[in-house]
């Protein structure tokens, strides 16, 4: 089943990813980002950071309309009933603004931090979404499965978008089948277009539904010096490439083991956009003209994190209200 042409404005299709350093600095940053005209913010919080939804609730109280996304909540850390309660509480305070991104994270983290070891993470994720979706949409769930047994009714329900993080084709297939979108993690754009999107289409077709949106994770560096940009890119992506599930994805994307191990120029140039405001804006417009539905943008700091974040907010805020003239999305 074909996905309808995206009628949202260009600005609505681009969000910023901000890391949770401290709740206060995060909330202050989100206030500034909303004032600059950005329509959506995504908060990243590894399990060693403070709790994400608490900080987003505080941000909701100081902002009026910006969409608030989690990117992503590790599902091993909380029961789906608890997450539903947290999400519905935030939704009651900021109706229509929460976008719930969840994922399995690295198996090593689930085991070392939470003492949880799941042999089939995608099966666990499928059942987790089933329980969580029922609670969000109807306020109740009566479920007995392999991983969860629960019978509960809550006092509220809401249509909260539920997105899942994806790396491999099977995860993208699952997102196409059961989620409201897929959040990519450090995936090269050609891989998203050639591998992830077809997998999502297959999953959506199997479920008899339109393909949900796919969100590309885009990293930018404000420098016109290629050597500086690539050095920053190697620091960012070289470490990630040593994590098994990222490495497997990069191998599927067509990079050789040597290119991955050395973070070669070809490897970095597929993961990083660098330049001045004009170059970065042009790159965003080109990406939005493809079948990618949304961009989630991360700033890789060159010298001044606050100033460079402000430069990015101005680019996104000035994208305008016109819709994309790109190709219809399948």
TrEMBL record:
InterPro entries referenced in this protein's UniProt entry, alphabetically: F420-G6PD/mer, Luciferase-like_dom, Luciferase-like_sf
Gene3D superfamilies in the record: Luciferase-like domain
GO MF, one annotated term: oxidoreductase activity, acting on paired donors, with incorporation or reduction of molecular oxygen
Domain Luciferase-like intervals: 21-237
Coiled-coil region list: none
Domain of life: Bacteria
PANTHER family hit by this protein: CONSERVED HYPOTHETICAL ALANINE AND PROLINE-RICH PROTEIN, PTHR43244
The protein, known as: LLM class F420-dependent oxidoreductase
């Amino acid at each position: 089943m074909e996905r309808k042409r995206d009628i949202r404005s260009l600005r609505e299709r681009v969000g910023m990813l901000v890391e949770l350093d401290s709740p206060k600095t995060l909330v202050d940053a989100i206030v500034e980002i909303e004032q600059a005209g950005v329509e959506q913010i995504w908060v990243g919080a590894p399990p060693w950071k403070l709790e994400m939804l608490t900080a987003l609730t505080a941000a909701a109280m100081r902002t009026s309309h910006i969409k608030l996304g989690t990117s992503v909540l590790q599902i091993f850390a909380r029961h789906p009933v608890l997450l539903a309660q947290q999400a519905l509480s935030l939704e009651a305070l900021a109706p229509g603004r929460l976008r719930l991104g969840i994922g399995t994270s690295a198996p090593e983290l689930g085991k070392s931090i939470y003492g949880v070891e799941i042999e089939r993470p995608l099966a666990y994720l499928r059942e987790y979404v089933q329980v969580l979706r029922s609670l969000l949409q109807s306020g109740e769930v009566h479920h007995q499965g392999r991983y969860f047994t629960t019978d509960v009714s809550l006092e509220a329900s809401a249509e909260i978008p539920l997105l899942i993080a994806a790396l491999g084709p099977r995860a993208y297939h699952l997102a196409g089948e059961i989620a409201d979108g897929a959040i990519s993690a450090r995936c090269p754009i050609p891989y998203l277009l050639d591998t992830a999107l077809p997998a999502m289409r297959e999953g959506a077709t199997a479920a008899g539904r339109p393909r949900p949106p796919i969100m590309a994770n885009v990293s930018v560096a404000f420098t016109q010096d290629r050597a500086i940009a690539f050095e920053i890119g190697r620091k960012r992506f070289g470490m990630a490439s040593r994590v098994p599930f990222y490495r497997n994805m990069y191998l599927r994307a067509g990079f050789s083991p040597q290119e991955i191990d050395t973070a070669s120029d070809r490897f970095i140039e597929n993961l990083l956009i660098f330049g001045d405001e004009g170059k970065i804006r042009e790159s965003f417009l080109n990406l939005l003209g493809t079948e990618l539905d949304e961009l989630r943008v991360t700033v890789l700091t060159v010298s001044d994190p606050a100033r460079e974040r402000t430069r990015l907010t101005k680019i996104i805020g000035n994208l305008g209200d016109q819709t994309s003239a790109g190709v219809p999305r399948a």
